[in-house]
């Protein structure tokens, strides 16, 4: 999955109110490779969601 597709999918999940459930899908694998990071511009919502990947405790919260 490209970074653009990932951000688009998570942005849609956020707008529809099920971001937490969708994040669990992406955080479930032990390794996640995101291709083309920085290739296309990301809007403010996409940047916020992307930052949440590295926020402390995010992967613990998603696996609870």
Question: What does it look like?
Answer:
The protein is an all-alpha fold and 64 residues long. The protein has one domain (3-63). Helix content is 59%, strand content 0%. The protein contains 4 helices and no strands. The chain has helices at 3-16, 19-27, 44-52, 58-63. The protein starts with a helix and ends with a helix. The model is unreliable at 59-64 (pLDDT under 50).
What would a concise description of this structure say?
With 64 residues, the protein is mainly alpha-helical.
Show the helix and strand layout.
Blueprint: H1 3-16, H2 19-27, H3 44-52, H4 58-63
Helix pairs in contact: 1-2, 1-3
Keyphrases for this structure?
64 residues, 4 helices, mainly alpha
Query: What is the count of structural domains?
Result: 1
Q: How far apart lie the N and C ends?
A: 25 Å
Give the overall average pLDDT: 74
Instruction: State the low-pLDDT regions, or none.
Output: 59-64
Q: What portion of the residues fall into strands of 2 or more residues?
A: under 5%
Biggest sheet: strands, sense, closure? none
State the helical fraction.
55-70%
